[in-house]
Structure formats: structure tokens, C-alpha cells
Amino acid sequence: MSDAVSLNGMRVLVTRPAGQGEGLIEAIRRAGGDAVSLPLLKIEPVTEQHRQAEIRKLIQSLDDYQVLIFISTNAVRYGLDWIFQYWPNFLLGADVVAVGPTTAAALADLPCEVHHSASGMSSEDILELSVLQEVQGKKIALFRGVGGRELLADTLRRRGARVDYIETYERLPVSGAGNQLAQLLQRERIDAMSVTSGQILDSLCQLVDISDTGFKLIPLLVPSERIRQQAQAAGFVRVVCSRGSTDSAILAGLVAIAEQQSDRPDGARSG
């Protein structure tokens, strides 16, 4: 990004889980903005014994699967922790698919090709990959957190595949986040907010009164068209899609918001 690009002092609320927003925060600051971090979800490995037993059973049979799909970087982190316990060399012979370029990058050290869509990071984009077209009779392992969208698995099943979820982590609410958010909005000027998943948006909606005019007018940056529609349905007025959840995509979206704000006749900010 060129030196001429600047966020012009924009103060951005970053809601990524703890430990996953540092790169974005640093990028915002390098671009002349100010990042306020408030994680709205925390990511924890599955600890219930019955769920761990199910994961163990599926991982031990992973060589029976022809396709492995990783939904996110968290799916990579916790999924590989399990896989390498039983398959230390990852010589499984399966096609490996990542949802999004960031997830693909997290799999870059595997001794195999990683397939991902160059056009987007949604389930709809991944379903266009050639490797997922002819799946009749194939077994597919889908690494993800507990719960989530069913579109990917449902579509692959309609195409004739058997899909098993390997759910290795959970997204949990952050204790006290509501009070922290209320206090932050009272004492800080917030010019834009960034959410990087539908679950984080749901958490945000549960913590605030979106009917509050001042809050719903704050520009909200989201990573996909699906989440943009979700945000608008919830009541947010100024929703901008970055078409990706990488740090560079989010930063480009924030720059676009900053430019829109600087073009307003009164020069006023939205927060």
C-alpha cells in the first residue's frame, strides 16, 4: 500500500478474537489510523470427552477420506493439532481444500497442493472449485468449529458425497464484553467497525441496541456479501463489503470508508 494512502486518524473498532487481530491493528496504525481492540468471541478447543472421542475416531480413519476441507485458520490450527497426533507426515493422499486465501496460507507447509478459490472466501465460492464437482461416492471431512452454516455440506451431499464434520473448536462469548462495549462507545469516538464473521456480527447485535441512531450509522465493514445482507437486516445503515477477511482486504475497505468520509460536504465523521 502506498505512502499516500492514509486512514486520516480514523478510529476503528476491531472485534477479532483475542490473539488474532494484532496484524490488522498494526496495519491500521501504519496507515495512519487508530485501532481499538474489543474481542467479541473467544476461540477454545473442544474439551468435552464425548466430542473428543468422536474427533479421535474420525481422525484415526482419516485415510478413508478423499477430500479434506478446512473452513478457517482456526480449523487449520486445531485440526492439524489432532491430525499430526496420528498422521505425523500427513501422507493421506486426499485433496485438501481451504476456504479463503488466508486459510490456504495457513496450510502452506503441508506436503500437498491446497485448493482454494481465487474469487472469494464463501462456501458458494468453494463449491465452484473443480475438485468439488465430481464427488459422487467420495468421503469428505470438513474441519470446522462447533455449529455454523450447513450450505457447503448440504450441497456436497446432494452431489453424492458423504460429509463428516470434524468440529475441533468452539466460539464462545467473551465475559463482560457488553459492558466493555458500552463504556467504550461512551468514552471513545468510533469512526468505523470491522467484523470478520457472521458469528462476530451476531455477538455484536446481541450486545448493543441497533435502533440507536448514532450506533447504527457508524460504518460497518464486513467480509462478504452474505454478511453485508445480514448486517443490513439487523439494522445497520452504512455497511461496506471488503470482499475478504485478510488484513489487506480489510485495510482497503477502511481506506474506502475514510475517503468517503473526507468527501462529505461537512467533513463530519459518523461516530
Descriptive account of the structure:
With 271 residues, the protein is an alpha/beta fold. It has 2 domains: 11-40 and 174-263, Rossmann fold (3-Layer(aba) Sandwich), CATH 3.40.50.10090; 44-172, Rossmann fold (3-Layer(aba) Sandwich), CATH 3.40.50.10090. 39% of the residues lie in helices and 19% in strands. The protein has 11 helices and 11 strands. A 6-stranded mixed sheet has the order 3-8-7-4-5-6. A 5-stranded parallel sheet has the order 2-1-9-10-11. The two termini are 26 Å apart. The model is unreliable at 266-271 (pLDDT under 50).
Describe the structure concisely.
The chain is an alpha/beta fold and 271 residues long.
Q: Which descriptor suits the 3D outline?
A: elongated
CATH classification, class level of the largest domain: Alpha Beta
Q: Identify low-pLDDT runs.
A: 266-271
User: What is the residue-averaged pLDDT?
Assistant: 90
Continuous helix count:
11
Helix content: 25-40%
Number of strands: 11
For the record, give the distance between the C-alpha atoms at the N and C termini, rounded to a whole number.
26 Å
Instruction: Give the H and E element order.
Output: EHEEHEHEHEHEHEHEHHEHEH
Largest sheet: 6 strands, mixed
In quaternary terms, these chains amount to single chain
What is the number of independent domains? 2
What is the second-level CATH architecture of the largest domain? Answer: 3-Layer(aba) Sandwich
Task: Specify Rg, calculated over alpha carbons.
Answer: 20 Å
